[in-house]
Design a protein that fits this description.
Layout: H1 5-20, H2 25-51, H3 67-75
Helix pairs in contact: 1-2
């Protein structure tokens, strides 16, 4: 799930309101939901970036990408 700029703005708005005056029960639930969505989005983006890495040995020029990562890349159609 990707998070929109509007959702990030809403997270910040709720955080400011929480500091200033507190949140209702519904707002607390909305804040928890939006925070979880944001964290899930960050994790998914990070995983996607890591899964595309190819590690090359500086001295030999040989591909030394860990086998586990190579297997994930093969599964996703990024390797032969």
């Amino acid at each position: 799930m990707t998070i929109t700029n509007e959702q990030v703005e809403r997270i910040n708005e709720l955080a400011r309101k929480k500091k200033a005056e507190g949140l209702s029960e519904a707002e607390l639930e909305e804040q928890a939901f939006l925070r979880r969505a944001y964290l899930d989005s960050v994790k998914a983006n990070f995983r996607s970036q890591v899964e595309t890495i190819k590690v090359i040995d500086e001295k030999t020029g040989e591909d030394v990408t860990p086998d586990k990562l190579k297997e994930i890349q093969r599964k996703n159609g990024m390797r032969d």
